[in-house]
Amino acid sequence: MSTRPHVLIVEDEASQREILAYNLEAEGFSVSRAGTGDEALTLFDEAPPDLVVLDWMLPGVSGIEICRRLKRREAAPEVPIIMLSARTEEGDRVRGLETGADDYVTKPYSVAELMARVRAQLRRTRPATVGQALVHEDLTLDPETWRVHRNGQEVELGPTEFRLLSTLMERPGRVWTREQLLDRVWGRDIFVDSRTVDVHVGRLRKALGRHGGDDPIRTVRGAGYALG
Ligand code: CA
Fold first, then answer.
1. Cα dihedral sign, 106-39-7-64
2. Ligand 1 center to 95 CA (angstroms)
């Protein structure tokens, strides 16, 4: 479900990894766990998460190198990475951020602080997953009540169309390929033909146009779909 943020935790110390996972799950996040950098890269490629919490000190390939590699992934530039480190020197912090990390937290950290940082990153990149209402022109979407309005009138949507619209509204103007929409809306573990995306976009368009108004969804030939 696109309304449930997926966080990948990369931490070799099992107890720390479990504490983090426990707290994120308690907040309603879905969590993947990796104990090494290689495992992290594999999990990331299988199902790009919405955010990565990455320990700097890992056995083998360091967290900083993993950060660099993740940021080169096609899906990665928009996936925030929060680095954890026992290092406290300012130079390390700068180096962490230079490799593309979006935030940097020094160990020992308070779980509450880390959660706040996680939410702050998601508010920027995946606002609907942290319960923030989305507005685009005459459309509003409230992820807490699962309600969509256009021009003040309620639009009835099925769950798939709701997730589709929520994805499009989080990034107005961005062109999504069918594959990207499949990953985001249906998830990787479910096998769905990419034509299914077209069917649901069709239903979404019909529902949004029920009370008139222009079609807000743009078909980009040979690429996919975008809002506006
Ligand atoms: Ca470590």
1. positive
2. 17
